[in-house]
Protein 1
Amino acid sequence: MENGRDRDAGMRRLRAVLEQVATPFVSVVIAMAIGSVIIWAVGYDPVKAFSALFAGAFGGPRQIGETMLRATPLIFTGLAVAYGFRAGLFNIGAEGQLFMGGLVAAWLGIALAGLPTFVIIPTILVAGALAGAAWAFVPALLKARVGAHEVITTMMFTFIARYIVSWLVTGSLKAPGQIPQTDPLPVESTLPRFIDILPGLGTGRAHLGFLIAIVFAVVVWWVLKYTTLGYEARAVGFNRWASETGGVSVSATTVKSLCISGALAAMAGITEVIGVHGRLFDQFSAGFGFTGIAVALLARNNPLGVIATAVLFGALSAGAGTMQLQANVPHKVIFIIQGLVIFLVAAQQLAHWILHPLKGREEVKGA
Amino acid sequence: MGTALLEVREVTKRFPGVLANDKVSLSLAEGEIVALLGENGAGKSTLMNVVYGLLAPDGGEILVDGNTVHVRSPRHAIDLGIGMVHQHFMLVEPLTVTENIVLGIEPTRYGEVIDFAKARADVAELSERYGLFVDPGATVRDLPVGMQQRVEILKALYRRARVLILDEPTAVLTPQEVRELFAVVRSLVAEGLSVVFITHKLEEVMSIADRVVVMRDGRVVGETRPSETDTAGLALMMVGRDVVFRIEKQPSTCGDTILEVSDVSVLDERRLEAVHSVSFRVCAGEILAIAGVSGNGQTELVEAITGLRKVAGGAITLAGSDITHASARQTIEAGVSHVPEDRHRRGMVLEFDLAENMILGDHRRLPFARHGVMDKAAIARITTERVAEYDVRTPSIRVAGNALSGGNQQKLVLARELGRDPELLVAAQPTRGLDVGAIEFVHKQILAERDVGKGVLLVSLELEEIQTLADRILVMFEGRIVKEFAAGEASDEDLGYYMTGGGGDKLAGEHAELSGTEVD
């Protein structure tokens, strides 16, 4: 009897996990199918297109490295948005926190030139993350004190951050020359690439930031599941009244959660500056803060799922160029597929119905 | 005997893993009140949702006037003369009473122009005929719950319902409103309507029903008339075993003062004073009950004591230490447990599993957490122990809180709040919406807490609960304590008299008149 109950519980948990994975997976498959029809309709060969896309993303060590490179900032911003969502906060301004992280990274990277790498890099990571947290702190405080909605305030703070960066790279931080950008960072201020450590890997531009991102994802997962900090964040995210009754300070939890989210988003900006570009300029983020929303949604705000969905989005982006080269399909088609994935995730119920053609309706009625 | 107005024959309805209705049969004659009695989850609402076209049956048939019908939708049910008032009202709150009643079948002139004059006249005529007085021009949002229910009934009548299904209609009503509802139901029946009255409250069945159909575990287990049975007999049929009605209670042994409330005033959301200079004390080994009609300051008082609401004036001490301005967390840590009146809103996180719910409030403390890291093994072990001790029926401690029935959810809340071993238990409406079996369990737990020398502050709208448990009774009206009784000293009528302002001084009376329209 006891055993049977245990097995039932185990089965239920397995089913729950499968269910969690199945819905995003079905969304991606449907998006690719619709994408194929579009590619076919505009006169290209979808099979050729997708095999080129796959080859461009996973075809060899260099391609895999490119996918990792592009997934790295998305893991961080995905984690940032996911953590916020778990605490009931929609941090739509991850992009702004990312910019502040990138700014502090570039500034310190240049200012600390000459110190050893093992001093500079940790300093940059900590200071940059704090800058992101600070950038989220004001909206967080406004939310906790006067209830100002974080969607508006974090978004507005994104504009401020972007224009501060814009102003600095055209002004006091500008390197000599025509282009609005900072001086390049000295080598001791940059993150090593995998090939700098093991040249045989052949992973191209991929840098240690990818590993840092994986570690962060595991830590965020652990924090949410095993610490009182994460417990309180989730409690407030689900039901602020019950949390309050249980002695949880809703405003303190809101402030802490949004600051953590901001710090995670800043990590994306930091690793882009010290891992990829080696300098700061206006357009150093390809909207990673916003794509992070899609990454988090597709992962259903599960930090480990974020790794998978960020790699998926990274692969789409890494393979797009090859697809254009080999199958002549404009790489912008990838944006259509990305858009479809997001759309289908938002319309989760659709995938749910495909998985449970009859049960879905029954549940709606029974409710 | 003529043809039944409504007949249900061997209706079966399955949900995944549950046989909600197993060959259920029921008939309803013209002008009859049939009570459908059963515990939560017995299948009463499922059956009526089948009749109302919300659920398709897996077997059996439904007859109206002797003809087999397939009820496809609520709209179809309405066309057949069947109206239903759900537990949760389906009203458009910003609209007026009249607008709600005619919504969907508005009388029109010149094609698309709503004839409000005719609508108002129709509604007024209906109100008059059935004694259902509501201000047709009032906005629904501003009406008290009892009035909103009348609007729902008028909606059904406006659609020419001949059968009215009332799903747990008294769950949200005050005793006064219940009496008014019963008067309305009797006048409806006098006008030839038939009523199905879904409930799990035995006294209601005894006072209103012509016939009682008792359901248990999806089956009809018996049928009787109030004249042929009593509440104990009904309870036996409903639960399948004897239920102790009068819980054995020793006289209280009042020890040291646990809670002292002195001249406490509290503001509500609108920043109006909801509690006016209230003073009382609860001693160890005593249950102090606060009786009152909903909305007379009890909620604000409880929130002030439990640290959820600011105290505007006065002082609160717990076993001698000042907790007037303590936060909810400090209050819990000082030894106050709280069973909130709304368990879904304040009592638990429905999305959390049982283990996560079990630690809420103690989640920072040993043995559940050390230095901010939770001990999952200890949490699981203690949750399993408490789930067994408090008889929470669940397949696993890993299911979400919303998978439990109301009674089991409340047992979970009790297990958490009592498992913490508090000095004071503040229980607000601890048995709201529970069936008799669960009520008995909750009452026994509260008494046991008293018997080991803890203080209990019980706030309830149910006079029976207060009479069963209280050692002393305070009656609260308009934010003031207007009367104190010792256990057994007051009849229900005495309590009702003071609860509705009977004993108040002149000032309180005037105050009641002034604020009579803004009851929420």
Note: Confidence is low (pLDDT under 50) at residues 358-367 of chain A.
Protein 2
Amino acid sequence: MSTPRASGYFRTRYEHDQALLDTRAQKAWLAAFCIALAAFPFVAGAFALDLANQVLLMSIGAIALMLLTGYAGQISLGHAGLLAAGAFTTGILFKEAGASFWVTLPSSAAVGALIGLVFGLPSLRLRGLYLAMSTLALHFLVVQAGQEYETRRGHSTGVLIDPPSLGGWVMNDPRAWYFVLLAASIATLLFSLNLLRGRTGRAWRAIHGREAVAAALGIDVRAAKLSAFVVSCTLTAVAGCLFAYYRGFVSAEAFSLFVAIQYVAAIIIGGIGSILGAVLGTVFVVLFPYGIEALMSALGLSERLSSVVFAVNYAAFGLVMILFLVFEPQGLVGIWRRVQAWFLLWPFKQKPVGK
Amino acid sequence: MSEALLQLEKVEVAYHRVITAVQGVSLHVPKGSIVALLGTNGAGKTTTLRAISGFIGLDDARVTDGAISFRGERIENRAPHEVTARGIALVPERSKVFENLTVQENIEAVVQKDRAAGARHSDAAWEYFPALARLRRRDAGYLSGGERQMLAIGAALACGPELLLVDELSQGLAPLIVRDLLQRLQEIRKDLGMTVLLVEQNAALALEAADHAYVMENGRIVLDGDPQRLLAHQDVQEFYLGTGAGSRDGMRRNYRDVKQYRRSRRWYG
Amino acid sequence: MQLAVNIAVLAAIYALIACGYVLIYRVSRVLSLAHGELMMLGAYGLAATASLFAGNPLVAIAASAVLALAVGFLVYGLLMWRMTGESVLAAVLATIALGILLRGAMILAFGTQTQYPLQQLGWANASIAIGGARISGAGLVLVAGTALVYGALFLFLHASRWGIRMRAAGQNPLLAAQRGIRLHGVYALAWGLATFTGGMAGMLIACDAGIEATLVTIGLKAFPAALVGGLDSLLGALVGAWIVAGAEVLIIQYVDPLLSDVVPFFVLLAMLVIRPWGLFGTCEELDRV
């Protein structure tokens, strides 16, 4: 549901109110955007293509986390654990049973749902800070379990996975990956939007607002919380599975606490409470290290600091997160909306009551 | 009129920049007097008190017009501890004591602007409320309602203020205890020259103790004057004391309906 | 006996770090997840002052202590005061972001090699025998220091005026402001003290084993100790530290040494399931989002 536009456009039917796209201008922009998306892999270089793939991949997990934390209000700091669960399921099934893509994907989803249930159980008793701590603890446990598998099976540097094959056609072309990931990302987006507009989404928003009131209105609070966790974790586990195939390689170090923080940062920087925020935040977080690198080479520092470039990334990332938290709590979406509002309203700007 | 310790001139307070809760309120609180501020729920009494004590910023409210002067100095929209440092102490309506601290610690936690006189001010708390002295080691959370109120007033006294703002003294307390507390306030006023601004819903008890009273309704002052005169005023009797000639069908009407009510009384006698 | 000594030293470490978590949470209701990094900053501070005041080890130690205190005040004054009044998630994320920033900055400033401040101070880490077990000099100072710190904190919080005011501000900030207590000052003091004790822990661990990246994980592992005891109880932090340290050492000894990093989180989860507010914490409504 989009925000109402400037005067002159009025809705006269319920369908118009509920439609995802209102005006002709919006539809035109969307069409142009779709064409651009479809044409992108044919005009972009290999580096840009890889970046786009990373963005698309991370966006699935970010949207899932936004559903859980932004809409349902259940804070989860253990998201990387879910990615690890999906990735390791894929890795284990591939290594031990030589399973194909058609088996590992649903299995990852199933494992994700199961672990989502486990992650969700503490939320029935805990809220806020304590819930965040429990998800943190569970994250460590899941990653440790993956680590255990690696050491016991002697894959100390990680599990190698062959690229998935669909009936003879092996998928290791970045362009093919682009379209697959784009499809997955769009599917996640549409699925989430649909979910949010339906009963489940409304139940989540209610429990985010005030649990007691939601319960008084007849919403099954426990079911809503668990469903939020299960849906979010399933999506993330699927993302983890795709991640494993895309990288061709699964290792426990890839799912550190920093990765979980990156996801949380993506939804905060993007702006909590909107799917657009999840996408914007993802783009920001993925492009950020490369932006810092470009900045460093522009400033001529890249030589001196080449050995500690990850430290520069860390420091800059922390700083930017702090800046957003302090100065722009509504994130990139907040900035976007303010710019929009300024353009839409400037002939009619009013001063509020008082001085 | 004697010199004003606290003066409000046409003060306006707005919430969220759009809802005006207090409109053009002017109060004159002379030094060494007890002034009562009466009114029903939602009249704006507590908002006025919070505007004076500096706490309205918490609810995204501001004093948007007018002036609040204490000893001639403007204090509107200042931080709470600055207001306290100038000599104004607030006895709040809710959460008036530190529940997990003992009575002794509650009094000790107070910050006194004047270290030398500090001990004297703390002693005042024990002196006027001897019951507290017997309860020094008890956790404040375990005190009864009356004891809590005594502790709250005592802690406010320990700040060594010149002006005491008391919000809803009688809330949740038996009338005899309230009477007793009001008597203590009068003693404190006599001995220490304390000025008291009393916000009250229990108009009868407040009017007994006060030197001057204001009545608020809908964010404005509608009546003010000598308490004896107000006690005899028919509208006050009707709407705040419940002792008036009685409305026609036994229901006490809201002051807002006053025009219609008066018209109906004229017609039906 | 050696086991008991090991548990004692580890418990002292956890207790010293945990009291920082508890101090900040109790007074300002903010969970500071930057504590591990602040610990490490304290350790690096010692290394820096040791090389600065080479030859005057006592001056170096005093300087680094003052530095740790000052850093705590700075952290509050520059960042955390803006987070007062924001949602819990925002404040916690701010501390996480601060931790990330500090970690990156420390690597940039001090490099990635292990440093040994004890050597720079010119002292040796003697191994002392106690009834059949061995304990390092730094370990002994740790245990004694932790006891001292806790004693001093208890005294401060319960017997001094400002300690009482800190507890009051933690319970009811609004009322505290009405009684003239400057909340910003109290919060800054809490951060200063917490960073001081955390820095102290970092310095002592560095003296024992050198400054490495694993120092930060020790900080994170101490958090379950604070939670098990109750996030707003100092006594709880002490007890929790013993429980977590005991569990960790015993499981390393008898079950599997690789589990050392996850044992505290097992204990954390168990506690969250059984009694979320810890052993001695106040049973607050957990509805603080």
Note: Chain C has twelve helices and two strands.
